[in-house]
Amino acid sequence: MATDYGAVWSELDRSLSSIEAVLDPAAKKAEIAGLEEEVARPDLWDDQENAQRVTSRLSALQGELERVEGLRSRLDDVQVLIELAQAENDADSLAEADRELAGLQKSIDSLEVRTLLNGDYDERDALVTIRSEAGGVDAADFAAMLLRMYLRWAERHHYSAEVYDTSYAEEAGIKSATFAVKAPYAYGTLSVEQGTHRLVRISPFDNQGRRQTSFAGVEVLPVTEQADHIDIPEQDIRVDVFRSSGPGGQSVNTTDSAVRITHLPTGIVVSCQNEKSQLQNKAAALQVLQSRLLERARQEREAELNALKSDGGNSWGAQMRSYVLHPYQMVKDLRTNYETSNPDAVFDGEIDEFLDAGIRWRRTQEVAA
Length: 369
Prior knowledge:
The protein has helices at residues 5-23, 25-39, 48-88, 91-114, 136-156, 186-190, 278-304, 343-347, 352-368, and strands at residues 126-132, 160-168, 174-182, 195-202, 211-222, 237-242, 258-263, 268-272, 319-324, 330-333, 339-340. By secondary structure, it is an alpha+beta fold. It folds into 3 domains: 5-114, Release factor (Methane Monooxygenase Hydroxylase, Chain G, domain 1, Up-down Bundle), CATH 1.20.58; 126-221 and 314-368, Alpha-Beta Plaits; 234-304, 2-Layer Sandwich (Double Stranded RNA Binding Domain), CATH 3.30.160. The two termini are 41 Å apart.
């Protein structure tokens, strides 16, 4: 059946117009102009925290505007290409138009997902913690595999990622790790990864070659900002310092620069050993603690408003994805049913389709609630 190019183009045009109505390019241009004036001020960097906020916001808006305008330009160009190809009955040009329409469909679908990220904290950086759960050494190894997966995803998108703390397991893998992904909408995007991940494989640590099932938990929090007003009195925390260490307990720092903070009212414990100085580690650990307290406050508000979903779709401990390496190869999201038969690619950071499906699924749950 011949492709109805006009109908395909019109559908893409409707989708993009709907996205433009939500993202409002004109408003973004106005905000960009204002931020550019701030960036041009000679005293901008007198307040480094504010300067970083301004420049980060400006970069994010410019990137988003370029993305929308680029898609509109491509859509206009392919319309011209289709008209010329049809007028001249040019099969090669029509084939090129087919490829471009398919590419535009994928890009517009991806941008449409961005319009679904409109939660209170969705625009923020993400603070991710991975913990090994049931499964012994296989679970610790699985947690390390997930850590690499997310860091590779960030690397593929040229996002900044900083590991704050890693607790290594005795034999292999990690007990836990906490890292930040610094990118526009990192929290809104990665928050759908929260829950319990399950791995089924022939254990490389079992000398009898038996199949092993192991679990790892992923927690995703928004990074706090000054406007959050999370007050942490000094008397509510206990600060302990210790020597930073790497795998196997090998010392990587000759001073007691690593910091562990215990929030006494809640019992929340956080630590950071990534920085070289004790002051820097304490500041990073306090930021992690603030993010945990912010999330705790959010959950308490939701409980008061009876807004927690009965299915626990985004709650800690909800099993949400299976990674099967034996007797067949498959990664499947148990909420969205999205799956792939290429787990190697997934563990190498190719998780965008899972993220998009998760964001769409979450929206359907919110609408249905």
